[in-house]
Write a structure and sequence with these properties.
single chain; alpha+beta; six-stranded antiparallel sheet; 8 helices; globular; disordered N terminus
């Protein structure tokens, strides 16, 4: 699609040389026009003995090493990869060739990986160009010095740690076959791979913070290759639905610059051009970097003017109390596991959530593909951004998780849909937080680290229970009896004194300080229209029973005078877990309009 007619739909900018699946531009918040997808068929091999590096497979000439073909960006455990093997293979290798388009010569060439689970090493023409750890976050490498004329070879070694329960892994099971609430693992490349040319002086990232009270957008820009003696300028153009709103140009003195731009068109009458799920207004923004008056880099992006705040113990969106109707979204797909089969599938999940009456999702134990966040921005769906946690605590876990969480926040900071940061869930990674002071301090460290990087969004200490310092009190409660839920959430005192799952809401001497209260997991009603043969928190016998049970747990959320939002479990079935409102292949278990009425309390 292109920008004609609707200015904030980004171009895909797919060149004629691009091949393979998932060919849409992978990074819609920071888009350049020239790029080349490396998705599609790669040579592939298992390295179960861990001998590949010693035998120098990275040179690319060990024919016995790459004995299979795989379709990137799908992992070998998935059907869409062409391999479909759920067995343990913790070290895998990838190889493919590519050529640089002739008109890219003279540019710096950057190789991007959306995500590789878990640790990656990358070589180009036998030269190591990147090392990265973290299964959910992107990384890149300037490969210019490693390139040759004509054909080039990129090789990736990916290593997972399938049985390590201290690894930040989310819902990926550490046993061979999925069971209960744990699902099939992913190993290796699971998000898009691409290359792009950049000038020696280029924009590396931006951070945009809206201020609706002052009608301003605060912009931090980070620029590579700037030398103090050079004359470098940055032009910024802001448009709304094609109409020019603001222009700015300034000299670049340092690698990092801060600029505030006033939006003179902006008024708050009737919410004006603010972003919300009901009115997902987006501004287009263009960055043009000039060196000696010539344009050397151009990046397209967008932002939404919205504010998240807590006023008088009320969670507010754009200075007004806002009741959140969220659905838990695992982000798994039958044939792709963690990887959506298409961009349209990501978009459809957003559409289905909205059609069922939800105004947001809590993305559970996964940092989702940026294309999903784009569709949340574009179509209007709030997002609680939650990390993939480990299951047990260790010093290695702390090091790994702290680094990955910072990368997650950096990648996703600009998305207006993100309304809450959730570094920890249900004491995963900190299972003894009730008594262990180290684990308590780790939770506090993650809370304060998050606030130090972003003070514009609320942060949840430990979603579900066992909170210490937290902006929101979140409770996971799978009680199915309506009368019990109504009594439990009749007052703030009764809510925070309850012990769903036999867990205290506060630990470590912390207590309730008037924070907004959310029931951030509940429901989980297992139901299949065929024979009941799966796992869930409670079971329904038929569609009528399912809808009655659904209404019984949702109605108390609306009648409660203290609950400010809920998150229903869950959007879809996943493998053996059949407590979704939709089946695993996204078929509704009841009419969408009937579900919508229940979820909206009408």
């Amino acid at each position: 699609m292109n920008r004609t007619g609707v200015s904030h739909i980004l171009t895909t900018a797919v060149s004629e040389t691009q091949t393979g699946l998932r060919s849409e531009y992978p990074r819609p918040q920071f888009q350049r026009k020239e790029w080349l997808s490396l998705n599609g068929e790669w040579d592939f091999g298992f390295d179960d003995l861990g001998i590949g590096e010693d035998e120098r497979w990275f040179l690319g000439n060990a024919k016995q090493s790459f004995t299979r073909k795989i379709t990137v960006p799908f992992t070998f455990q998935s059907k869409l990869s062409g391999i479909d093997d759920p067995a343990f293979h913790d070290v895998v290798w990838y190889r493919r060739t590519f050529e640089i388009p002739p008109d890219w010569h003279g540019k710096r060439i950057v190789l991007h990986f959306g995500a590789v689970d878990y640790a990656a090493k990358v070589w180009v023409n036998g030269h190591m160009v990147a090392v990265h750890e973290g299964g959910h976050t992107p990384f890149q490498a300037d490969i210019t010095a490693a390139l040759a004329a004509g054909s080039n070879t990129v090789i990736v070694r990916a290593e997972d740690f399938s049985r390590d329960v201290t690894l930040p892994r989310g819902k990926q099971y550490w046993l061979e076959h999925s069971a209960s609430i744990f699902y099939t693992r992913t190993t290796g490349i699971w998000q898009s791979v691409w290359i792009e040319p950049v000038s020696p002086v280029h924009l590396s990232k931006t951070m945009m913070t809206p201020d609706i009270d002052r009608n301003e957008i605060r912009i931090r820009t980070f620029i590579e290759g700037v030398k103090s003696a050079e004359e470098v300028k940055l032009q910024i153009t802001v448009r709304f639905q094609g109409e020019l709103v603001a222009e700015d140009q300034y000299a670049i003195q340092n690698a990092e610059q801060l600029r505030t731009i006033g939006l003179s068109d902006f008024t708050d009458h009737g919410l004006g051009r603010l972003w919300s799920p009901e009115h997902p207004n987006l501004y287009d923004i263009e960055f043009r970097l000039l060196q000696a008056e010539a344009v050397v880099d151009q990046v397209s992006s967008y932002f939404g003017m919205r504010k998240v705040s807590i006023e008088d113990s009320k969670l507010c969106l754009n200075n007004r109390p806002y009741f959140q109707r969220l659905v838990l979204d695992q982000g798994y797909f039958p044939e792709g596991i963690l990887t959506a089969p298409s961009d349209e599938a990501l978009k459809r999940d957003v559409e289905l959530a909205k059609e069922m009456g939800f105004n947001g999702v809590r993305k559970h134990q996964k940092s989702e593909d940026p294309r999903f966040l784009y569709w949340c921005d574009r179509l209007g769906l709030l997002l609680w951004s939650e990390a993939a946690n480990a299951y047990e605590y260790s010093e290695a876990y702390v090091r790994r998780f702290t680094a990955e969480w910072q990368e997650i926040m950096e990648r996703d900071y600009n998305h207006p849909c993100i309304i809450t940061w959730v570094p920890l869930n249900e004491s995963w990674g900190i299972p003894n937080v009730q008594m262990d002071r180290r684990q308590q301090q780790h939770g506090l460290a993650m809370y304060h680290l998050t606030k130090s990087l972003d003070d514009s969004r609320p942060v949840v200490y430990n979603d579900g229970w066992e909170h210490m310092t937290t902006d929101l009190v979140t409770i996971h409660d799978y009680e199915s009896r309506q009368e019990v839920l109504e009594e439990r959430y009749a007052t703030a005192a009764s809510a925070v004194q309850a012990m769903p799952a036999n867990r205290r809401i506060f630990v470590g001497g912390a207590s309730y300080q008037g924070q907004p209260i959310f029931v951030s997991e509940f429901g989980g009603i297992a139901f299949k229209k065929s024979e009941w043969d799966g796992w869930g928190y409670s079971g329904a016998e038929n569609e009528e029973d399912f809808l009655a049970r659904l209404k019984a747990v949702v109605d108390p959320m609306f009648s409660s005078p203290v609950v400010q939002g809920y998150c229903y479990t869950q959007l879809t079935d996943v493998e053996q877990e059949i407590n979704g409102l939709l089946t695993y292949d996204r078929k509704p278990k009841a009419p969408l309009e009937t579900i919508r009425k229940i979820m909206m309390g009408t």
